[in-house]
UniProtKB/TrEMBL annotation:
Keywords: Disulfide bond, Lipoprotein, Membrane, Mitochondrion, Mitochondrion inner membrane, Myristate. The keyword DNA damage does not apply. InterPro entries: MIC19/MIC25, MICOS_subunit_Mic19. The keyword Lipoprotein applies. Residues 33-54 are annotated as: Disordered. This is MIC19 protein. One of its GO terms (cellular component) is MICOS complex. It is found in: Mitochondrion inner membrane. It holds the Pfam family MIC19_MIC25. One of its GO terms (biological process) is inner mitochondrial membrane organization. It is a lipid-anchor. Its main location: mitochondrion. The gene is Chchd3.
Length: 169
């Protein structure tokens, strides 16, 4: 933009009212023109409203240099702001990536925990089924013994009743 020296030549001329007209497409604001008409503070000689071509060229060059420096400064600010925005974007992406990785790790840990609990539950279920089968078998044996005991007791009672009945008949 203005880092190197410009080889572009600017020509200008003053009209009858001492207004400056710039040729070759360079526009100057009224304030720039007014400043170019004013005598420079470093100059010891007095001007009567007329400015020499050489001094005017020097002022225009200074104004163009200032404008170029201002544009360069703005461009540099935009670049720095762009870099800052890029760093912020990268930082937020890194933060988001770390959060996603933490969440994935937590999800995987929960999945493994759920699998472990499922295996423990299946193991407990198998154990309960074994206990259930064992107690059913024990209950069946006890019922069978109880039935045999009842049968023997009933037979003995019947036999004793028959004996008592036969004796006292």
């Amino acid at each position: 933009m203005g880092g190197g020296g410009s080889t572009r030549r600017v020509t200008f001329e003053a009209d009858e009212n001492e207004n400056i007209t710039v040729v070759k497409g360079v526009r100057l604001s009224d304030s720039v023109i007014d400043r170019m008409k004013e005598p420079s503070s470093g100059s010891g000689r007095q001007h009567r409203g007329a400015v020499s071509d050489e001094e005017l060229k020097k002022r225009i060059a200074e104004e163009l240099a200032l404008e170029r420096a201002r544009r360069d400064s703005e461009a540099q600010k935009r670049r720095l702001f762009g870099k800052l925005l890029e760093r912020e974007r990268i930082s937020s992406n890194e933060h988001l990536t770390r959060a996603i990785l933490r969440e994935r790790a937590a999800t995987e840990e929960e999945r493994q925990k759920a699998q472990r609990f499922a295996r423990q539950l299946e193991e407990k279920d198998r154990e309960l089924k074994k206990h259930d089968a064992y107690y059913k078998e024990q209950l069946a044996r006890l019922e069978e013994r109880s039935a045999q005991f009842y049968k023997v007791t009933t037979e003995q009672y019947q036999k004793a009743a028959d004996e008592v009945s036969a004796r006292f008949k």
